[in-house]
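Regression report. Comparing outputs from two consecutive submissions.

Submission 1:
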Amino acid sequence: MSFLLIILQDFFAIRKKTKFLLRLIILIILLFLFITAIVYQATMSIIFSILLLCVLGMALYLHRNEEGEQ
């Protein structure tokens, strides 16, 4: 689901607020994936989820800083 939202964000010209909301929805989906991985005790999924959450969190942080400078 999150990958489909990423594709939607990349291929269509959408506004900045919509991009931010899409990234926030993706973050929520990845957080759900992380919680599910913990419940099922899947080590590789936990590591993958942590990496994805860190990368997306950094992308959201950079997006917010970019808006602040403009």
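Submission 2:
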Amino acid sequence: MQTDSDTRTHRRPAGPARALRKDRTSLTSLKRDPLVRGLGVASAVLGVPQVTRPGEFARGVGVEDEPRNRLATTAVGVRDLVAAAGLLGRPHPAWLWCRVGGDVMDLTMLARALRTQDGGRTRRTALATAATAAITATDVYAAVTRTRGITTLELTSSTTVAKPPGEVYGLWRQLDRLPTFMAHLDEVRVTGPRTSHWKATAPFGTTVEWDAETTEDVSGERIAWRSREGADIDNSGEVRFVRAPGGRGTEIHVTLRYGLPAGPLGKVVARYFGEEPSQQLDDDLRRFKQVIETGEVVRSEGAPTGKRARGEFPQRPARPLTEDELREALS
């Protein structure tokens, strides 16, 4: 039996072709997104009067109509029109983040104006500040949520098991058994000859679901799949079963690709909370090796409940059970 060192995961950025395909899918989705289009229209509606009538617009928000303020208002209007063109023409999360940056600048200028005003103009500026703050909150929400799935993470891992390729393929092909060794999976339900429904636990206990279709299935050699439209997290992958040299069994090579929630920030936060994706894949393959070679995930006496203990499969040194653990194991 191989040791834990037989399982290795390598993480690398998706290649240019994969990244391009993913970006095109995201752009198509953003073009149909009502919130993104609504923010594009709002940028246009605000930008036109700022450029064509900067003095009147400045007075409307309680700012003095002077050359410096007219110039600043015009610049803000041009920025809004550029953002509108981007969001309505070639939408991308970068345009949403540009709006967030512009909102911060607007709030800074309005706050400075509030400190130097009094009377009726102060009231108008305060109302403009409140409206801008509400728009900022909407822009931040749109930028964060629409960034999901843009960053593609690719993981590869491999291990060797002491079983022939046909048997290894046969176990992996039983999709409803995958949650028995994959910690993040809660349920896999076969819905058709080449389709299935998946439910998983994402970082912070969030549940995500998606429908998947098998794109390639070569008995004893290879299984490939991808998520269908409407998935909470776009993903795809493949697993190859290769006869190991010297009759040592089967090499399993797994490749997973998925859109990372909240982009790079999501990866950093997930790692901080102990949910490093590459480590998860290593652990999943290690448990698969245990299942196919011994018939079960090997656990010590000190961790009889396995997945329920932490939403995964904890491994601890053997020790006598406490009364509470014994009661839970027997219930």
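Expected: both submissions complete independently.
Actual: both completed, but the second showed a warning that disappeared on reload.
Relevant detail on submission 2: Residues 33-147 form one domain.
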